[in-house]
Amino acid sequence: MIKDIRSLGEEILGKIGSKNSFKNENVINWKNWLQLYDFHPEHTDDPYAWLTNVLALKSVNSGNYGVGSIIVDAEGKIVVLGHNLVYSPSFRSDLHAEMVALNYFEEKNPQITTVKGYTLYTSLESCPMCLTRLISAGINRVFYVSSDPIGGMTDSIDLLPPLWKELSEPQIFAKAHCSAELSNAATGIMLINAEELLEILRKRRE
To answer: Is 102 helix (H, G, I), strand (E, B) or coil?
Structure first.
């Protein structure tokens, strides 16, 4: 399983910074860092956290926020990959990484009526919009690689309206069991172009 995750991530990384793609020194530096990173056996979520960071970097490379998400089944097999698609190829305010992953999963598996055995990993703590979608979807476990003290909502479920709090009770929302290095990488990748993209959102209000 770990070899499969590594191979998948390496394939994605191989296309980042290629001849025809967006070039950014920070992107290349993080690409090199991710390629050299060794999974820590004591951190059981390291492979999944690493892959969300790979997807986050792919997202930045495509002109979007640096956030990546995956969905894993009960056996630990990755069933869906997703990353932020808000800005490119065209503006879609709803296409945060978790939303993209859930859209792919639900479109691909209309026959599934319970997602109790599934886990979603995301490189950045979910925002209020994504949190309520995750609650509605019923994904059993949601693990984030890096906290988001400015925009994250996962640690503030008690502030949600009563219905959403009730629906969330069977679910687990927590920090992924991964290395501090991967958590720091998730934050660093997200910050590569965050301010520039946030400015685009601000201008939409002018």
So the answer is: helix
Question: 180 is written with which tokens?
Answer: 């501090």
Q: Name residues of the chain where pLDDT drops below 70.
A: 18-23
The number of helices, as runs of H, and strands, as runs of E, in the chain is: 8, 5
Closest CA to 137 of 174, 176, 110, 106: 106
Please say whether the beta carbons of 96 and 129 come within 8 A. Answer: yes
Question: For the segment 108-162, what is each residue's pLDDT rounded down to a tens digit?
Answer: 999 998 898 999 999 999 999 999 999 999 999 999 999 999 999 998 999 999 9
* CB distance 82 to 12 below 8 Å: no
pTM score above 0.70: yes
Helix intervals (H) in the chain: 2-14, 25-36, 46-61, 97-108, 128-137, 162-168, 180-191, 194-203
Residue 139 phi/psi, 5-degree rounding, is -55, 130
Q: Is the dihedral of CA 119, 150, 40, 56 positive or negative?
A: positive
d(CA 25, CA 12): 18
Rounded-to-integer distance, Cα 84 and Cα 58, Å = 9
Residue 22: predicted pLDDT: 52
- End-to-end, the C-alpha distance of the chain in Å comes to 49
